[in-house]
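Sanity check

After download, print the first record. It should look like this:
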Amino acid sequence: MSAVVVPDPDGGEVLIEPLDAAGPFSVGWAWGERRPTGRRELTLTLRYDGAAPAPATVRVSRSVAAVAGPWWLIPGLFYGENRPEDCQRVFPRFEPGADRPEEMVSARWGFRADRAATPAVLVWGDAGGAALIADEHSPLGPTGLAIEHEAGRATVALLFPYREFPVTYYGSALALPAGAATHVWQPGETHVLTLATSALPADRHAYAPLLREDRDLRLPAAPVEPWEDVAQAADIAAEGLYRWHYDPDPGVLLETVGFDREVSGTDGERVDRQAMHVGWVSGIPWAAALLEHGLRRGRPEHVAAAERVIGFICANLSPSGTFWGTWYRKSGWSQSWSHVKDALHARTLGEATLFLLRALRLRHDPAWEAAARSNLRVMAARQRADGNLGTLHHAATGEVLSWSGASGLTWVAALAESGDPDHLRAAERAGEYYASFVDDEFIYGAPEDVDLAPTSEDGYAAVMAYMALHRRTGAARWLDLARRAADWTLTFRYTYNVRFGPRTPLGRYGFATRGADQASPSNQHLHAYGLVCTAELVELSEALGDPYYAERAYETLDCFRQLLPAADGDLNAYRGMITERYYQTDCFQPKGMYLTLSHAWSAGVLLLACEQVLKGQGSPATSLTKMIPSVALS
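Expected structure tokens:
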């Protein structure tokens, strides 16, 4: 049958078409009331009138004029072109007129809905946009989300059930063949599909109220039940860091340790990664959290371990005056995970420096302070006239090897929190430079391992940066940028509970995904790194007089107090071992699995958030900003 055109009462039209249908379908529809954002529910009743069973996919689409090229948003999954052209990491990229699936470059893409943090697909064209929203699953099977640009028209579509095209992304540069779910219609079979749609104004940030409203509508059907209270979760995470990741020789937090202590690698050694980054996946941020926990709980062994890790890092600066990137047991201090020789990554260095400043509030140490001063001084000196702080820095010479991306955002927070007026001015210049990434709704470059891909971690860095500037200056501009950055960050946060097979680990344990973040369009798994800006989101809510951002922070803490091994043997792990990956879709591993490696940052970021929240509990709302340390170098 040909497409059925359903006029939208608010303008525009929706097309319904059974793809590859062997027989006739009849379609009925009914519109719901208009919601405050302009969203309307659309209920479709479809009946298959063919004489014999036949497979068919129902496609619901909406188009806008986009001669100049569209801007896409599939929350957590697809942002604009999605992969900058010079990004070294290979994952799906949109390019008008392209059809190079072997390179994962195409003008049309289809995905299964569980890859998205909200099962929605949005587009902006020449004079506005359109959105389609559904549930992860329908009576016809798992839902699909699709985009297509052709002949000056940009189309978003829902597919019942899903189709993935032109290839299937599985987490590496080697794509899998296109895939699809199948529903075989029987003669006379009838199904009711529900979805929602809305026209969008030209402002790309118009997604924010729409997704916020959608999240509120999903809440009743997406409960999250933490396994432990906040204080117990802090104890578990701290024990995991100390018992499994801390090695006193020479004083490191090993990045990963295996759940199974009998498994060994090809060289007969355990699978534990004998390495430590100074920030990000290990190092100072999580040692600082362990320090705070040890002081609060009166655990001198935790305090001593944290001090030894921070001291070891501070005692080994690179020749250029910053921290190194990574320590390896076999080779010592070295560069970051970068394709560029001798490169140190700005985000990793900035995060280490920021949390070193916060650790100094807890413990004054002249060597720590000297390391912080050195890092701040040399990075501020490298700042470009336009405010850019650089992305890759040569370990020996300090030369900036790359200015691409927004990885310098973490340095904005560090410079602002140092207490030095000159550093604050440098932070403000950088804040102005990186504001364009926030305004463009496309922030990228933070994690070392995905090059210039947009990631949830870029959002966390932006929120922390602009809240630090607002905290130090009180300027409304920084608060507004923090709000916009938080809205973008929350597009990565799951608003629903993914369906898991009953025999998968996540299905068996009843893992609720609401509150977890998609790591990135490149790394499609759920992770807990969003806990790093728990205090900043609470602070943002206070400043705006809007509880929404704090609620989103607390739901993430609720989410990652699930699947905590409280005793040896729980989850096939040992007490305190915490995975970094929960597989909510088929990427890297089958849906419903989790990675059986404990990561230092996974325990560390949970511990950090727990300590921040415990610090704020029992206090008036106006005092919650004390969750963020006030730091000034003497």
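If your output differs, re-run the checksum step. Summary of this record's structure: The radius of gyration is 25 Å.
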